Amino acid sequence: MGDLLFIDDIKPGMKSWTAIITVQEKLNVCSAPSTSTKWQKFIFVDSKGSKVQGVLFDYAIQKMGPKLKLYKKYRISNAEVRSAAERFQLDGLKLQWIISTKTIVEEIDEADSSVLPFHFDFTAYKDLPPYADMKYEIVDVIGIVIHVSSVIPVHKDSRSSLVQKFWLVNEEMNPILLSLWNEFTKNEGKSITELKDKYPVLICRRLNVVMYNGIALSTRNDSVILVNPPVREVNQLKHWAARNEKSFAGLLEDNMHAKQSPQLFHQSHQKIISIIDVVPTQKVSWVKAQVSFKHIIQKYYYMGCIKCHRMTAANFGTTFTCNHCNEKQQASPRYRFDVDLTDHTDTLTASVFGDLAESLLTFTALEAMNYHEENTELPLEKVHQELQSRMFIIQLKPAATRDGGGHQRYTIVYFFEDSSSEESANKSAHPDVHTISLGIGNTVPTNAAPENQVSSSKVRIRLDTKFDQSEDANDNTSKDE
Ligand SMILES: [Zn+2]
Fold first, then answer.
1. Cα–Cα separations (whole angstroms), residue 251 to 164, 167, 244, 256
2. For the domain that residue 323 is a member of, what is the CATH number?
3. Into how many domains does the chain fold?
4. What ipTM is given for this predicted complex?
5. Would residue 117 count as lying in a domain?
6. 377 Cα to the center of ligand 1, angstroms
7. How far is the CA of 223 from the centre of ligand 1 (A)?
8. How far is the CA of 479 from the centre of ligand 1 (A)?
9. What angle do CA 54, 55, 60 make, to 5 degrees?
């Protein structure tokens, strides 16, 4: 079968060789949308720690794929060795072995394969923020699963996907949300769910860092999720978990993203911009602003599917077939209301939803619904008063929908209180802007915006919005009843 060589000694076109490798990673099967070609990639590692990419195409995936098991050792001979075009390289590995149905692949029974010599470079959770929303930047992380959610369907741009979310924690004690998509929910997601009471350790490779209620992690097509791989770092983390198990419950009880992500954020030097510079072409923007909604007349909630939160005409508490989940779900009130964000440059209206919205108020969406149905105003005097002296760091994104007037709307993705500037909050707000928001509160029935003010156009937008929303609210009410 040829000379026994190390991975680094095997060159393109070389024939008559044998190597002993361990399967470190086995990726999901991929297919090109334009052709019917399918492929599956592997990462093989030898006893020196050198790596090479293994590739199976089409029929070989069925025939050879199941033979090559994760973490097992094999003797491979005479695979076709080719250089890989840059866009097909994994981890910058320049060579690939094409494993066909003719390639000799023999499993080696290992007497002791308890700990494998894999090497990983993990990114600490606190160092993740600079990679956020950068499609071509990938990270490897290690973490213990401390919470498992169920698989949920997501519909976006007429495409359906499946997502399953997990909370990971490591020695930093900074929980982070990991989303597994599609194929990953069927394989790795299922294994993790089965192991959830045993705190499985995941090594996640080639993840994207995304902005989702702070910083979160998300799989790509070429990601790999190793569940409890037999490597030293995993054992180490398991030992640490056994000593710290008690504190995991506490991490879960707290509102994790609200508590943890601001710390991550502060270390990331995200750029805070002035409200006057917020533009819809920017995917996400961070602003530092005061929040007020005293002057906006609105219904504070909508009726939605309890699972996917899409709006429904179903009555509260009834079970209906959700058109988005395609499952029987309950109708439940969810917060949605508009707030004005004001800094020293301008004022902008944005919508806030769900738990994030609830954290601004002192009661639940269900209670808000009850007030609404009794035709009673929400008792918000204290909330409004307290908001005047609070300053928030807010992440905004342009909303997909526009309001009735065709104005670009914004959604608050995430916010937290900026405790560092509590005292300066009132001073930093522009006095003119401040007057405007108070002024509107006093002139609710009129459609006239104050003249000659810095943000009079914005004020008009808000008034338009306000009337649209009142109408919306009435429409919804009539449907509800
Ligand atoms: Zn639904």
1. 20, 10, 11, 6
2. 2.40.50.140
3. 3
4. 0.98
5. no
6. 29
7. 28
8. 19
9. 125
Distance 410 CA to ligand 1 centre (A): 23
Cβ(328)–Cβ(316) below 8 Å: no
Question: Residue 258 C-alpha to ligand 1 middle, in angstroms?
Answer: 25
- Kindly give the distance from the C-alpha atom of residue 324 to the centroid of ligand 1, in angstroms, as a whole number: 5
> Distance, CA 326 to ligand 1 centroid (Å)?
7
Tell me if residue 292 falls in helix, strand or coil.
Answer: strand
Residues 356 and 217 in one domain: no
Nearest Cα residue to 19 out of 32, 1, 33: 1
Of 119-128, 258-267, 289-298, give the lowest mean pLDDT range: 258-267
Provide, rounded to the nearest whole percent, the portion of the chain with pLDDT above 90.
47
The stretch 432-448 carries a mean pLDDT of 32
| 68 and 176 fall within a common domain | no
The predicted-structure confidence for 215-228, as pLDDT tens digits, reads as follows 889 999 999 999 99
How far is C-alpha 346 from the geometric centre of its chain's CA atoms? 30
Instruction: Calculate how far, in angstroms, residue 35's C-alpha sits from the geometric centre of ligand 1.
Output: 34
> Positive or negative, the Cα torsion across 227, 228, 234, 239?
positive
C-alpha 481/C-alpha 475 separation (Å) is: 10
Quote the ligand 1 centre to 315 CA distance (angstroms): 14
Dist CA 144 CA 168 (whole Å): 5
Q: Does 157 share its domain with 291?
A: no
Q: How many CB atoms lie within 10 A of CB 427?
A: 9
